[in-house]
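User: quick one, sequence for these tokens?
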């Protein structure tokens, strides 16, 4: 049967779009951002050039020996953050590499927990230890990756040797331990945090198809789906194998795993593991312990649903306080949907004091909810909390109107909103315009059933700028979702400047880069209800070129004069700008011969009101011979 993978996080796709901004705003003061391939063509070259607290930002693409000549293993540096453009878009692919290395990515002696590996598909790593990522005496953060199709003798996906990495929000699938243990993750005397991952379809030739905990390893394993993994021969533990280890296993879905012994979980010589709030169902063993197998072990097994495992739910151990054995009523397990249906016996059936209990479930919904409506909030069994959907939506951009508009113009305010959560969301979006503390416009639009990881463009009722020019308004867009778990991203603001529209005329309308004149001349005419005599000439400046704001602005420097230069019966203000300074700005922006640019000129009247207007100028680059 084909097994579908339900992704454990929904922020991955938006991360692909805005990951650079997130990295830059979260970076440490003084840290450097090194870009691949803009600064270095290879990921390893960029890491080699980085120092602690630096970020290596990898653009979308496939990085492999056959594409950019990437060398493997990619070796991390202490304190460096390696951030890809998102797993769907950015792949580290070791296929075709001439030798077996130490994982696609290797972490050795990484003590700084700020070291980060995020936003990649990591694949085709052949290794002895850790096909995808190898951690030796290291504790990096490994998050928001797809780790797939890797193989090793030990630890097909991730290998931990005397290490305590944080492994969160990854899809770890289709990896194999060819000759030994730990198809998905292997731990030796290591204490990683393994949370909010999808661990599915991994295999081991001996033990621990999904996760193997060996020799004094005490990981925290929580809020994962551990499904469809297998230990083909040897000792067992299709889902999880523990030898001389005492993990904390809380609020996981452990289902559809298979082994010779202990299809779901196998304990051997393990003194004090705790198993709490899990659903352990539908696993199989060729011999004994389809659900949980214990050999000379004393796990604490409380508040779990252990049901429908073959053969036996328990072998040489038994249910403790709060355990049940009943169909958990998953929504659609064949499609990988392990949410609980209404009426599930796992709703409000867990232990609120379970060790390793997380604040949020695998969907990002808060624990603990009152799922059965009895007025008492009790945590559910499994990785997904049942109850009122608590989503996370937010505003990601204000798209219209522009930030400089003329008085009396009519615009349709527009914004883009995004569903960051893993469940569909229906919510309102409000738009407000505030002028000096007075709300001058308000509208609300409903967004219905916006899917997980999807965005929507929202258009509000038309707004006419005014009633007067020369003022600013603050435009605010806010998403209104009941039980939003992250209100910090709900609101965006934008300053809109409403200007008196001026007529601007640059004469001549060609700017010769080789010209010898000192000034560029511009004529300003205001609407009939305003006078150019009221312009504060010290404020007149070229403020934008082709809509791009200048900082600093190019203020007028030459003499000014008032006259009717266009013979239309209205007064014009003549101002002059320094030719060389304007040419330097244009060149720095990449403009040259043949380009036509729009120059926006603005300023203030003596009463403080703002005016602005634009005219186009053609750039030419010709000497005395006309060539």
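Assistant:
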């Amino acid at each position: 049967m084909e097994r579908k993978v339900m992704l454990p996080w929904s922020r991955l796709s938006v991360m692909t779009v805005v990951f650079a901004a997130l990295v830059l705003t979260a970076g440490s003061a003084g840290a450097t951002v090194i870009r691949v391939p803009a600064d270095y063509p290879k990921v390893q070259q960029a890491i080699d050039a980085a120092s602690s607290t630096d970020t290596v930002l990898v653009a979308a693409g496939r990085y492999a020996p056959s594409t950019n000549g990437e060398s493997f293993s990619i070796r991390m540096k202490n304190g460096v953050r390696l951030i890809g453009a998102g797993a769907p878009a950015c792949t580290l692919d070791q296929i075709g590499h001439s030798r077996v290395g130490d994982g696609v990515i290797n972490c050795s002696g990484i003590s700084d927990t700020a070291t980060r590996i995020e936003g990649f598909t990591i694949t085709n790593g052949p290794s002895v230890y850790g096909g995808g990522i190898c951690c030796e005496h290291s504790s990096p953060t490994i998050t928001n990756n797809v780790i797939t199709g890797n193989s090793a003798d030990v630890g097909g996906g991730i290998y931990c040797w005397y290490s305590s990495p944080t492994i969160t929000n990854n899809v770890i699938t289709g990896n194999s331990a060819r000759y030994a243990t730990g198809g998905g993750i292997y731990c030796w005397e290591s204490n990683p945090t393994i949370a909010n991952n999808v661990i599915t379809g991994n295999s081991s030739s001996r033990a621990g198809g999904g996760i193997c905990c060996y020799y004094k390893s005490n990981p925290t394993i929580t809020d994962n789906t551990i499904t469809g993994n297998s230990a083909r021969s040897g000792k067992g533990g299709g889902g999880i194998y523990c030898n001389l280890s005492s993990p904390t296993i809380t609020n996981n879905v452990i289902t559809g795993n298979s082994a010779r012994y202990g299809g779901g979980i196998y304990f051997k010589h393990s003194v004090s593991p705790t198993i709490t709030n899990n659903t352990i169902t539908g696993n199989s063993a060729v011999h004994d312990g389809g659900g949980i197998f214990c050999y000379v072990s004393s796990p604490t097994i409380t508040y779990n649903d252990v049901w429908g495992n073959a053969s036996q739910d328990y072998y040489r151990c038994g249910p403790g306080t709060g355990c049940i054995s009943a169909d958990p009523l998953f929504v659609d397990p064949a499609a990988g949907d392990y949410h609980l249906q209404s009426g599930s016996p796992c709703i409000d059936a867990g232990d609120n004091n379970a060790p390793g209990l997380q604040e949020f479930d695998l969907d990002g919904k808060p624990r603990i909810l009152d799922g059965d409506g009895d007025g008492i909030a009790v945590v559910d069994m499994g990785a997904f909390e049942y109850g009122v959907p608590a989503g996370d939506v937010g505003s990601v951009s204000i798209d219209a109107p522009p930030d400089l508009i003329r008085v009396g113009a009519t615009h349709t305010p527009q914004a883009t909103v995004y569903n960051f959560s893993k469940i569909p969301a229906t919510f309102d979006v409000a738009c407000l315009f505030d002028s000096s503390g007075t709300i001058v416009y308000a509208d609300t639009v409903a967004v219905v059933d916006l899917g997980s990881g999807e965005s929507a463009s929202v258009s509000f009722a038309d707004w006419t700028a005014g009633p007067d020019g020369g003022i600013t308004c603050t435009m605010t867009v806010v998403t209104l979702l009941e039980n939003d778990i992250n209100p910090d991203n709900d609101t965006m603001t934008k300053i809109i400047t409403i200007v008196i529209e001026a007529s601007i005329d640059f004469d001549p309308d060609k700017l010769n880069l080789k010209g010898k004149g000192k000034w560029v001349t511009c004529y300003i005419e205001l609407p009939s209800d305003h006078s150019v005599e009221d312009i504060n000439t010290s404020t007149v400046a070229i403020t934008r070129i082709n809509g791009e704001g200048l900082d600093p602005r190019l203020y007028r420097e030459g003499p000014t004069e008032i006259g009717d230069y266009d013979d239309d019966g209205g007064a014009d203000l003549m101002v002059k700008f320094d030719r060389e300074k304007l040419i330097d700005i244009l060149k720095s922006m990449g403009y040259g011969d043949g380009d036509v640019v729009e120059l926006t000129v603005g300023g203030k009247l003596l009463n403080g009101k703002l005016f602005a207007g634009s005219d186009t100028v053609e750039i030419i680059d010709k000497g005395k011979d006309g060539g």
